[in-house]
Design a protein that fits this description.
alpha/beta, three-stranded antiparallel β-sheet, 6 helices, 31% helix, binds glycinamide ribonucleotide
């Protein structure tokens, strides 16, 4: 038994919310010691909102277009999030770039999941770009969020060999499956207080990580 209280978590989404679902499922089955308090979306039609509704998690919709500029949008978003007093904010497919003020406000308490082996392929369309480059490997990364877009200290990566003639959709699906492993894992470490950000260092079990923890898919690369 642990005496560590459940970690209060707010999740930000823009789309399907399958990573949100992975967190909801992990919480339900006791794999992560969390309380997902609220889900925020910047898109009213994001399917992930229904996933939160089904799990009885309060949802909020805040659109950037309803504010005169990014600064006022982010102030409002931060203030709504603050009202939950979360210990962790998870960007789970949240497709808005967050500014320095917002990120600094929650420094050390925001993580993001990104569909590439960072530092390769920051930004959008990662699966297509990886295939165009003819890379042998692809994957996903969970990292702490800093002011540098997709550039914060990395926690854990999932890495797969790309199959010959693999389609973008198939590759995206396989990367997603890895995301459902590494995102709950990072949250589990944070919730059990095994993982922290100190300056720009990721500390896991009192050891500074020299690089992200790597989870490799076991499938052989096809000829
Ligand atoms: C995930 O693949 C996540 O890595 C990506 O969006 C997808 C959301 O899927 N995030 C980014 O591209 C952030 N730059 P989901 O809504 O089904 O969880």
């Amino acid at each position: 038994m642990t005496n560590i209280p459940r970690l209060n978590v707010v999740v930000l989404i823009s789309g399907e919310g399958t990573n949100l679902q992975a967190l909801i499922d992990a919480e339900k089955t006791g794999k992560i010691n969390t309380r997902i308090q609220a889900v925020f979306s910047d898109r009213p039609e994001a399917p992930g909102i229904k996933r939160a509704n089904r799990a009885n998690i309060p949802t909020h919709y805040l659109a950037r277009s309803d504010f005169p500029n990014r600064a006022t949008y982010e102030l409002e978003l931060a203030s709504h999030i603050d009202s939950y007093e979360p210990g962790l904010i998870v960007l789970a497919g949240f497709m808005k770039v967050l500014g320095a003020g917002f990120v600094r406000h929650f420094c050390g308490k925001i993580i993001n999941i990104h569909p590439s082996l960072l530092p390769r392929y920051r930004g959008l369309d990662t699966h297509r770009r990886v295939l165009e480059e003819g890379d042998e490997k692809h994957g996903a990364t969970v990292h702490f969020v800093t002011e540098e877009l997709d550039g914060g200290p990395r926690i854990i990566q999932y890495c797969i060999p790309i199959k010959a003639k693999e389609s973008e959709a198939e590759l995206a699906q396989r990367v997603h499956e890895g995301e459902y492993i590494i995102l709950p894992q990072a949250v589990a470490w944070l919730a059990s207080q095994r993982l922290t950000l100190e300056g720009s260092n990721v500390i896991l079990d009192d050891q500074k990580l020299e690089g992200p923890i790597l989870i490799e898919d076991k499938h052989e690369r096809s000829p």
